[in-house]
Structure formats: C-alpha cells, structure tokens
Predict the structure.
Amino acid sequence: MIVGLVAGCAIGIPWAWWRLGVDISTLWASRAIDAATRLASELIPPSADGGLGHVFDITIETLAMSVIALTIAATLAGGAAFVGARRRGGPLVVVATAMRMFLLVTRAIPPPIWAFVLLFLFLPGEVPGALALAIYTFGVLGRLMGEVVEHVDPGPGDRLCAMGASPAQEFLYERVPRVAPSFVALALLTFVAELVTAAVSSLVVNAVAAFV
C-alpha cells in the first residue's frame, strides 16, 4: 500500500504540475510582491470599521448562525443515521442506500456554494448562511452518526426482544441510549469547525448580496 502511494505521488504530482502549467516564478513577480505589500500595510496595524462593538456584534451573529445550523443538522442527522445505516438485506436496503446517497450529495457541496444558491431563495441575511451550514453539517453528521449505528452490537437488543420487548421499546431503551453519547460528541466536534465555516458563508452571502 505504501509503495503504491509513493508511486502514485511520483506519477501524479509531475502530471498535475504539467497539466496545470504551474509557474513558480509568479510567486516573486513584481505584481505579486506589490499585492503582498499592500495587503500587509492594510492588515498591520489591524483596524475595525465601526469599532470593537461592531466586531463583537458580528462575532455573536456568527455564533448564532453556528448554533442554529448545528441544532437543525444534528436533529435531522440523528434520524437519518438510523435510516441510512447499512443492512444485510430486506426491502429497507433501498431506503438506506437512497439516504446514504442523499447524505453524500449534501456534504459534497461546500457551505459557501449552498449559501450562494440559497441566497436567491431567501432575502439576504443570516438565514441563507445558517441553512447552508445546516445542509452541509447534516450530510457530515449523518454519515458519521451512521457509522456509529452500524457498529453497535445487536446482541443486547436481540436479547431484549427475546424477553418480550417490542421493536419500538428496543429502539428507545437500548439502541438510542447506546449511541447518544457518541452523537453528542460528534455534534460538539462539528460545532468547532462550524465557527470557521460560518464566517466564510456569511462573507459569501454579504458579498453576493452587495451585487443583487
């Protein structure tokens, strides 16, 4: 496996370099140096338009977007994880496969693209950014939570059903409590990444809204 990886890199990197026509001399061209100098002069010393109060308000808005997105995504992903979990057979295999494909599509498109699309469905503001984050996070959490569901040992649930418990009771009192801690941990881990993504999505929404 390691040999194949090294061979793939040895072949792929030169091919990609040639295909893209990379010219590293542009890194120290006069235009690049002038642009970097101008950017550094604007960033140092840092300044906040509207004062620190405005920066604080924007930070709170970004945090609120992340909280809304995570709440929507985690709630929907929890149910989607059980629907999309792999099964050995039966008619629900088709439903599980369709759900996994849907989760794949939602997480394959980055939040800024979702925000750009939703901007034309909703008025400019925080709603498109929050929904864009929710859609993408739903796809990510749905797949991760599905992995947790698939690796749950069915033995205790089968023994509970053998003792007379209904499938609904087995699901609520055995399966859900076993996966809940992992679901919460995954949601909190995703929330950290959402804080950065929310800022980018908000920037895309505001930039596009300026031209709408």
Helices lie at 2-20, 30-43, 51-84, 92-108, 111-119, 126-150, 155-162, 167-209. The CA atoms of residues 111 and 132 lie 5 Å apart. The chain is about 80% helix and 0% strand.
